[in-house]
Design brief:
Strand order of the largest sheet: 3-4-5-6-7
Number of strands: 7
Mean pLDDT: 92
Distance between the termini: 52 Å
Strand content: 5-15%
CATH architecture of the largest domain: Alpha-Beta Barrel
Order of helices and strands: HHHEHEHEHEHEEEH
Helix content: 40-55%
Radius of gyration: 23 Å
Structural class: alpha/beta
Shape: elongated
Number of helices: 8
CATH class of the largest domain: Alpha Beta
Amino acid sequence: VEKDILKRYNGATAEAMVESAFRHINLLKSFDFHEIKVSIKASDVPRTIESYKLFSAKTNLPLHVGVTEAGGLYPGIVKSSIGIGMLLAEGIGDTIRVSLTRDPVEEVRVGYEILRSLFIRHRGPEIVSCPTCGRCRINLFDIVERVERALLSKSLTIKIAIMGCAVNGPGEAKEADIGIAGGDNIGILFKKGKVIKKVPQKNLVDVLLQEVEKYENKT
């Protein structure tokens, strides 16, 4: 943001950022350059959202949205999910960038999950899993991580449930195409809420992945 604009607004406010953006746009247009996409990112969520809303109310130019310098993995995911998610939910934004101090692959994964959570993209498996509680009978953290890694490159659209117990598992996750639920040494495999068979707990992940392969081969 230019010094004169910063002085007029007493800092890099959302209004200052928008005015600066239009100054640069007008400069580009003065050179007969009209293929423009605008990014007005801030490092905090409220200012980012406000600046994009102000800008989008004044023009239909395409917007590249994100929260810049969002930080490490957890702070960055939270900031990006809230900032980008709120804007996209209101129809603001044409492309996105998740900014993490992390491997760029993680940025892409987070960005895709944001798009999928808003039903903007549907490619790839969706995994639903419950939080742990006193009824949990399996190592839920390890199982979910193993399944996520195994399915990372899959493009098929499927909803998979990984539930900690058989009490709530099939009922709460009845919309899942395929699911597993833990038990005392014995778990269950279910499809669309219907129990298909009992499975030794140590084989739950292998059986689940085999069923996913079968599902993929049918589609």
